[in-house]
């Protein structure tokens, strides 16, 4: 039995224009323990200003009794150092496949991650690598192979069951492969939709991002498998919906309630 409670966080990505104090209130009112903060161009905290801005955001969230448990962004010396000073334990990244040679792309990714290791060790920050549909490491099997030669102390897996479902993967097999490298779970849900092209011989298929009880990922199975390995790391709700608009807070609240209920069973 899991005797240490999971930490529930939400991605700050949907609230791109919110100030730190505004987002802290939104997150607190919904019932989260903290956030994953995007550190990207076009957001309040960017790779260029992270040294000065991350402490301000950390202070605003600390004042609200919340934490910044992860950042989403490409590691570089300034970002890793800022996370270390702020005691943000995780930087979540994806693994894009560049070029036409898959194996060469994987080797390049592994070299890139190794180049970050000295920074991570000095700062005490871990890299969480997530699989993603499309031209990324898109399956759990691919993610496991990518991580295998990298030190588990500093590079782990961020499993996204929504993207696993899009890849046709079962939750139990995914968790059994990632169990010893799993340091973060990124919850979302989706299903494919398609429309015929003009010649009606092919279709354009794309994910439609929906609430937790609607998509291809069975959250009951996901939570059961995570409980079976006594997973007690952070669980991040991506808060990604194809159509949310003004209903975003209600969608996120419903997903948090559902996920917490399933974990409590």
Structural account:
It is a single chain. The protein is of the alpha/beta class. The protein has a single domain (8-264), classed as TIM Barrel, CATH 3.20.20. Helices cover 40% and strands 21% of the residues. It is built from nine helices and ten strands. It has an eight-stranded parallel beta barrel, surrounded by six helices. A two-stranded antiparallel sheet has the order 8-9. Helix 3 (77-86) packs across helix 4. The chain is globular, with a radius of gyration of 18 Å.
Order of helices and strands: EHEHEHEHEHEHHEEEHEH
Q: What's the architecture in CATH terms?
A: Alpha-Beta Barrel
CATH topology: TIM Barrel
Strand order of the largest sheet: 1-2-3-4-5-6-7-10
Total helices: the number is 9
- Average the pLDDT over all residues and give the rounded result: 95
Name given to the CATH homologous superfamily: Divalent-metal-dependent TIM barrel enzymes
The level 1 CATH classification is Alpha Beta
Write the layout of secondary structure elements.
Elements: E1 8-11, H1 20-30, E2 34-38, H2 50-63, E3 67-72, H3 77-86, E4 90-94, H4 102-123, E5 126-130, H5 140-147, E6 155-159, H6 161-166, H7 171-178, E7 182-187, E8 189-196, E9 203-210, H8 219-228, E10 235-237, H9 248-264
Parallel strand pairs: 1-2, 1-10, 2-3, 3-4, 4-5, 5-6, 6-7, 7-10
Antiparallel strand pairs: 8-9
Helix pairs in contact: 2-3, 3-4, 7-8
What would the keywords be for this entry?
TIM Barrel, 8-stranded parallel beta barrel, two-stranded antiparallel ribbon
């Amino acid at each position: 039995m899991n005797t240490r409670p999971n930490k529930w966080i939400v991605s700050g990505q949907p609230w791109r224009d919110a100030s730190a104090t505004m987002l802290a209130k939104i997150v607190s009112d919904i019932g989260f323990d903290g956030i994953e903060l995007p550190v990207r161009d076009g957001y309040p905290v960017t790779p260029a200003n992270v040294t000065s801005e991350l402490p301000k955001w950390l202070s605003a969230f600390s004042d609200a009794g919340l934490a910044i448990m992860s950042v989403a962004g490409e590691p570089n010396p300034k970002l890793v150092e800022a996370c270390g000073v702020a005691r943000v334990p995780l930087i979540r990244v994806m693994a894009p496949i560049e070029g036409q040679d898959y194996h060469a792309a994987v080797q390049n990714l592994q070299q890139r991650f190794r180049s970050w290791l000295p920074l991570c060790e000095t700062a005490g920050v871990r890299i969480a690598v997530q699989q993603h549909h499309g031209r990324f490491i898109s399956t759990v099997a691919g993610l496991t192979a990518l991580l295998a030669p990298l030190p588990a102390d500093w590079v782990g897996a961020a499993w996204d069951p929504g993207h696993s479902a899009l890849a046709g993967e079962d939750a139990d097999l995914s968790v059994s492969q990632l169990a010893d490298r799993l340091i973060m779970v990124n919850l979302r849900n989706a299903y494919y939709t398609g429309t015929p092209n003009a010649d009606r011989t092919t279709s354009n298929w794309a994910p439609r991002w929906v609430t937790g009880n609607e998509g291809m990922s069975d959250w009951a199975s996901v939570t059961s498998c995570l409980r079976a390995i006594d997973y007690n790391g952070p669980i991040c709700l991506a808060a990604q919906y194809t159509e949310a608009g003004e209903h975003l807070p209600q969608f996120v609240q419903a997903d948090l309630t559902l996920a917490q209920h399933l974990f409590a069973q």
